[in-house]
């Protein structure tokens, strides 16, 4: 028998009040995969990955990590699980009362993996990986530009070398060159750490760099998932429209006038 | 029928809110006593609640003591009972005014800032980020604040008792022409341990109410800057009302025989 997928969503439903966001998501991510999730704004991409972390709870369905259902995991189980996961939040979510290096080293210090000077050194090393030098280490997040904050958030997500990493729009708000640096950094992380990654992005260039698999979410379901080189094969009209950024097609943007 | 349904809905909503607060309070207290503890956070809150509230509490109790002496003197002069001024001042301060005034002032200062800070962390996903970095938000954010409220408010009130009595003394001696040592004697002879202790118990309860309301409303805030504003208002209003209600029942349980 083969090993279970690293992460699997089985028929996940989730609603906020009357608004049905996920309507039966089914998706599997194998160990070492780098999956990119694409889909329109508000289609539930962020909500989907937050179900793995227990930040949002599905109304029904299963979310499996290594074959174990993690929906409703609490206390120690939840902590142990989240320890293995790193997350870059869409808005950064840096702690604004802590300095940059304290942000990056936060997970290391809390788990007791590093203390004091060692934690700081590790933080600075991680900052260097995302292209930030030591000078920013003692600044507060508000003193940084938006793109720099994003990189600090990225450093915080990868600092304790998690085996599962979620990147929620890692390159939005960065200039094209820095985007490319971040894209390659993500590729490197996944390769070096042997991590399993799910990245959410709207940027098709970055999707092609990062992904070995791509999944598209539309109307609360995964409408297509496959290897990245099949992205342009025209297998699916939704994917085709999204990849080429056309206004006409099966995806109707409802714009009220 | 419709009226009944509406009343029913309001009653249900009320009990739901009470239930939520009770669960929140239970969880917060659990995290106050169950290790690990976040020493730095506790220290920061102790300083913030205790030290930085001192000027406000000192000023309010000083002037309350002074006005109390003035009012009771003019009032009691009608019955030639001016001698009771010192007694009235020290009794009212220790039993009622110091705890209630300190509680209300701290509600405005600390309750509001806790709701705003935690509320901002909620809407910018910093609380979710804590959970992904092996840190329980209740333990890291809420428990230190509640601990600081319960322990620091009695200290503030004890200082307030002394300053309030001093205010009465200043007005009594320099404005109303009492004999200084006689006034002191009156104050000391009259005040009983129970008067002070009941005030300190009240202070502990008010400290719990203020910090609980600040944390609860901040923690459950949603919807950006406006949501944080609503949370702040609710925190201050609900703690002020709860302080006044709790004050009656604590007094009742201490002094009704
Ligand atoms: N806490 C919440 N309360 C209510 N509704 C929510 C909440 N979080 C998300 N939603 C709703 O769920 C839907 C999906 O949100 P989500 O953030 O997952 O979108 P997304 O696919 O990540 O979009 P984007 O690409 O713009 O980030 C949105 O319509 C949003 O309004
Ligand atoms: Mg999103």
Can you give a write-up of this model?
The complex is a heterodimer of chains A (257) and B (257). Chain A is α/β, with parallel strands linked by helices. Chain A has a domain at 94-161. Chain A has helices at residues 45-53, 75-83, 100-111, 116-129, 146-158, 176-193, 204-210, 237-244, and strands at 7-16, 19-29, 34-38, 60-65, 68-69, 85-88, 164-168, 196-200, 213-218, 221-227. In chain A, the strands form 2 sheets. In chain A, strands 6-7-8-3-9-10 form a 6-stranded mixed beta sheet, sandwiched between helices. Chain A has a 4-stranded antiparallel beta sheet with strand order 2-1-4-5, covered by helices on one side. In chain A, strand 7 (164-168), helix 6 and strand 8 (196-200) form a beta-alpha-beta unit. In chain A, helix 3 packs parallel to helix 5. Chain B has one domain. Helices cover 86% and strands 0% of the residues of chain B. In chain B, helix 3 (54-76) runs parallel beside helix 6 (137-174), helix 4 (85-123) packs antiparallel against helix 9 (224-255) and helix 6 crosses helix 8. The relative contact order of chain B is 0.16. The chains are: A alpha/beta (257), B mainly alpha (257). The interface between A and B is medium-sized, with 23 and 13 residues. Bound molecules: adenosine-5'-triphosphate and magnesium ion.
Ordered list of secondary-structure elements with their pairings:
The complex is a heterodimer of chains A (257) and B (257).
Chain A: E1 7-16, E2 19-29, E3 34-38, H1 45-53, E4 60-65, E5 68-69, H2 75-83, E6 85-88, H3 100-111, H4 116-129, H5 146-158, E7 164-168, H6 176-193, E8 196-200, H7 204-210, E9 213-218, E10 221-227, H8 237-244
Parallel strand pairs in A: 3-8, 3-9, 6-7, 7-8
Antiparallel strand pairs in A: 1-2, 1-4, 4-5, 9-10
Chain B: H1 2-33, H2 39-51, H3 54-76, H4 85-123, H5 126-132, H6 137-174, H7 180-190, H8 193-219, H9 224-255
Helix pairs in contact in B: 1-6, 2-6, 3-4, 3-6, 4-6, 4-7, 4-8, 4-9, 6-7, 6-8, 8-9
The complex binds adenosine-5'-triphosphate and magnesium ion.
């Amino acid at each position: 028998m083969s090993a279970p997928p690293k992460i699997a969503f089985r028929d996940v439903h989730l609603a906020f009040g009357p608004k049905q966001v996920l309507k039966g998501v089914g998706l599997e991510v194998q160990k070492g995969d780098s999956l990119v999730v694409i889909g329109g704004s508000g289609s539930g991409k962020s909500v989907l990955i937050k179900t793995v972390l227990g930040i949002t709870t599905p109304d029904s369905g299963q979310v499996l990590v290594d074959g174990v259902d993690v929906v409703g995991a609490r206390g120690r189980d939840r902590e142990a699980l989240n320890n293995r996961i790193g997350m870059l939040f869409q808005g950064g979510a840096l702690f604004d009362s802590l300095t940059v290096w304290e942000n990056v080293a936060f997970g290391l210090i809390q788990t007791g993996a590093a203390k004091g000077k060692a934690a700081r050194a590790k933080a600075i090393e991680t900052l260097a990986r995302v292209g930030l030098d030591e000078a920013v280490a003692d600044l507060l997040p508000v003193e940084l530009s938006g793109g720099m904050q994003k990189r600090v958030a990225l450093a915080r997500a990868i600092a304790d070398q998690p085996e599962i990493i979620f990147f929620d729009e890692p390159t939005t708000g960065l200039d094209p060159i820095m985007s490319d640096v971040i894209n390659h950094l993500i590729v490197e992380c996944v390769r070096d750490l042997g991590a399993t990654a799910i990245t959410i992005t709207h940027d098709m260039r970055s999707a092609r760099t990062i992904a070995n698999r791509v999944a598209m979410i539309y109307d609360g379901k995964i409408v297509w998932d496959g290897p990245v080189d099949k992205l342009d094969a025209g297998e699916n009209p939704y994917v085709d429209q999204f990849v080429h950024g056309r206004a006409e097609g099966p995806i109707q943007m409802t714009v009220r006038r | 029928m419709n009226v009944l349904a509406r009343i029913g809905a309001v009653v249900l909503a009320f009990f739901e809110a009470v239930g939520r607060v009770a669960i929140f309070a239970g969880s917060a207290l659990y995290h106050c006593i169950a290790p690990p503890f976040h020493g730095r956070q506790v220290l920061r809150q102790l300083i913030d609640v205790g030290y930085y509230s001192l000027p406000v509490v000192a000023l309010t109790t000083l002037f309350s003591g002074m006005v109390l002496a003035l009012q009771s003197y003019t009032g009691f002069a009608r019955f030639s009972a001016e001698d009771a001024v010192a007694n009235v001042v020290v009794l009212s301060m220790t039993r009622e005014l110091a705890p209630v005034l300190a509680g209300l002032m701290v509600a405005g200062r600390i309750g509001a800032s806790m709701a705003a800070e935690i509320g901002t962390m909620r809407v910018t996903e910093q609380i979710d980020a804590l959970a992904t970095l092996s840190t329980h938000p209740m333990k890291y954010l809420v428990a230190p604040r509640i601990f600081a409220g319960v322990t620091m408010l009695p200290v503030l009130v004890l200082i307030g008792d002394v300053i309030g009595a001093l205010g009465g003394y200043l007005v009594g001696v320099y404005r109303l022409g009492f004999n200084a040592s006689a006034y002191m004697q009156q104050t000391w002879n009259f005040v009983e341990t129970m008067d002070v202790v009941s005030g300190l118990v009240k202070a502990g309860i008010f400290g719990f109410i203020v910090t609980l309301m600040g944390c609860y409303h901040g923690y459950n805030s949603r919807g950006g800057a406006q949501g944080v504003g609503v949370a702040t208002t609710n925190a201050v209003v609900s703690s002020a009302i709860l302080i006044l209600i709790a004050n009656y029942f604590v007094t009742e349980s201490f002094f009704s025989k």
